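Data card: per-record layout.
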Amino acid sequence: MDRGYSVQQTTDNGFIIVGSTESYGAGYSDIWLIRTDSDGNKIWDKTFGGVREDRGYSVQQTIDEGFVITGIGTSESADYIDGSHDVWLIRTDASGNKIWDKTFYGTSLSVGNAVQQTIDGGFIITGTKVSYVSGRFYYDVWLLKTDKNGNVD
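The structure for this 153-residue chain is written out next.
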């Protein structure tokens, strides 16, 4: 199952698309980044992920012609609880090669829904933190501001 969640026109009139793929990559579901020309013909594509579920929900071209992606990354730690996710922020160069990535943890489920580059060169992410306490789910808006290297300001 392959999914597209976000698309943006690039400065060269092509398009950048992010979503997820179960067709290939490292695991069950990986973030899938696709670059096309102005006619929609694929120029390149990249996957990011581990052996569990990863999805990209938002992509933006950055001022240096690279890209920034947010979505979910499934924890690879030994204390993994089925269904737990982290907000995942990935920074790439113009060819889609990963420069760095950062994860931000909630209590059980955290989702990065949208990302934008800020005036100071950092990034702002909006998402959701879901907590399960005493038999109830609690959903909170999560707003994260990072510097240009993905460190929380």
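Known properties of this structure: The chain has a mean pLDDT of 88. The first strand starts at residue 2 and ends at 9.

See the next section for split statistics.
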